[in-house]
Amino acid sequence: MRNLDKYKGVIPAFYACYDGEGNISPEGVQALTKYFVEKGVKGVYVNGSSGECIYQSVEDKKIVLENVMKAAEGKLTVIAHVACNNTQDSMELARHAQELGVDAIAAIPPIYFRLPEHAIAQYWNDISSAAPDTDFVIYNIPQLAGVALTQSLFAEMRKNPRVIGVKNSSMPVQDIQMFKQEAGEDYIIFNGPDEQFISGRVIGAEGAIGGTYGVMPELFLKMDEHIKAGGIAAAREIQYDVDAIIYKMCSAHGNMYGVIKAILKKNEGLELGGVRKPLAALIDSDKEIVEEAAGMIRDAREKYLA
């Protein structure tokens, strides 16, 4: 059996960090990485949905990952999402990630064209072949990618010895159970939907990767602590408050990641910029939501971490 311990725990999805002109900010990337090291999370998931990967170039993604690895100094498990909507660019990013020494690469399926399963498997295997010494994680997010990971496709991918598991962001919690039952202990299933952190963990996910963890990592770490200790009721209480914070952040006119970055500036002093078009920027009326959500996070920290 493989040693999967480095993937078991709370792994925030890394946010895109921009300067005043909207370009990648190496300083912001390094500051955010050091923040995660200080918070004590297990690792980071870089250049995924929360990193606005769809709207970034190959060079953008390289700059982000290079600065994450520089600042992490080996203190974080690093999973690099390398999928682009063509195989060549994806393989280039996979090679680059391996050269930098990441723990794993990950990829969604190609989007827009509905490819047959054998073509999706070929795409993932081609990407993996460009990083032959690096673990590979399948990213299942059908509500955005437009295609779901089936049991037959997962079985085909398990023929690749570099495949270690699935980042499962589909909404049915049952999917985690099904993938885990089929794959067994030699594979890891990550919970994706943040609002289902407890549900996914209880039904079989050993790790978790999420887009809102970064704005309130202490709360997810405390939930993780309770789950490991069998304190489901205590974890559920935190989950309810975390979900209320997520709903508040999602109620803004601007994109949720813009709200998150504004909260991180207010609560943590991090300067990460806004979001990249066509994601919607925050407007003046969103300031109240940012204030409320930031306060809810501070209150929850005081409530559960005192």
Written overview of the protein:
With 306 residues, the chain is α/β, with parallel strands linked by helices. It contains twelve helices and eight strands. It has an eight-stranded parallel beta sheet with strand order 1-8-7-6-5-4-3-2. α4 (117-129) links the parallel β4 (104-107) and β5. α3 runs parallel beside α4 and α8 packs parallel to α9. The longest helix has 20 residues, at 286-305.
Give a topology summary:
Elements: E1 10-12, H1 26-39, E2 43-46, H2 58-72, E3 77-81, H3 87-100, E4 104-107, H4 117-129, E5 135-140, H5 142-145, H6 151-157, E6 163-168, H7 174-183, E7 188-191, H8 197-203, E8 207-210, H9 217-228, H10 232-249, H11 256-268, H12 286-305
Parallel strand pairs: 1-8, 2-3, 3-4, 4-5, 5-6, 6-7, 7-8
The largest pleated sheet is described as: 8 strands, parallel
Strands of the widest sheet, in order across it, are: 1-8-7-6-5-4-3-2
Strand composition percent:
5-15%
- Percent of residues in helices comes to 40-55%
Query: What gyration radius follows from the Cα positions, in whole Å?
Result: 18 Å
Number of strands: 8
Number of helices: 12
Short synopsis of the structure:
The protein has 306 residues and is α/β, with parallel strands linked by helices.
Name a few traits of the molecule.
12 helices; eight-stranded parallel beta sheet; alpha/beta
